[in-house]
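Entry 0007
Protein: Ubiquitin-like domain-containing protein
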Amino acid sequence: MIIRVFLDMALINGTVPVKMVRIQSSDKPKPISHNTDVTVGLLEDRDDNIVYLRITVNQKSILSEELDHYKWIENSSTDGVAALDSSSTKIIIIYNATDKQSRDLFANMKRLLERESPIKPIPRPVDGIKPPNEPIPRPPDHIIAPKEAVNDLINYIETGAENDAQHPARYLAKNRTNIQFNLKDPNDNKKKAAVKQFETQESSNILKLKLQIECHLDRNPLILQLDVRSGTNLRTLKDQIENKTGIKYKDQYWYAFERYMISDDYVFGSTQLVVPPPPRNAPSKRTVQPTEPIRTGDTLIMYIAQLRPYEH
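Output (structure tokens):
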């Protein structure tokens, strides 16, 4: 039966490899990310006039579902990023925007979704194809990371060795070491004496956030505390991270509320909404509800598209 299903289907724009697929199911407590040997394809059943979205990992299908069960999330999508949403599943796909076949496939996907009817509440699975069981989350390691890597990271950051800092950072992330980043005004060191008497006032101007870092080299996310000064925009924050760790700003993809991409112009500590209200003339079936501003205690997600392993 499975063989017959796919023999009867025609590929639309073929199947393309992608950098990362992140799937959040409503019945699962945590999202699952796939970073290795991942492909996305659109298949058309011409007899029934149905287009299927198919995702494979290591040449095994983990999702095969009618495309019109989903809608295209314009606010969370950009060149190289596609965000889809259904009544039970949220999907974020990061692909190679410089590859013509990949661009064509996701442009076609967007076109098909924008002309489709609203989301159907009950998806129809393909017989015989089941997603793999979610791996049981590994409890955090409380083993102290090697002092050598910690010292390397401190030294590289203090001396401004941007390209070298990412190697010990990756090693510490693999060991799930708890590290706190305090990203503040770069001139703070020159003003320490004057700032001490205003510590109480200053603390009210700092947003204390949780940052979940995911990358293509490790499926276990790293959880950090992130302190951001009010008035800082996301592009400035990306530049600070690039200067401290060597992770290029263009390889950083930031999300709030699990699935909404944050604009580089977003100002932390302001009343600005991550997803603004839609124009009055926007089609109601494609309208995304506006979100709240980012506040202290919220969790942000940073996906790193390119990161080399630690080599001492």
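Curator remark: The chain has seven helices and 15 strands. The longest helix spans residues 100-115.
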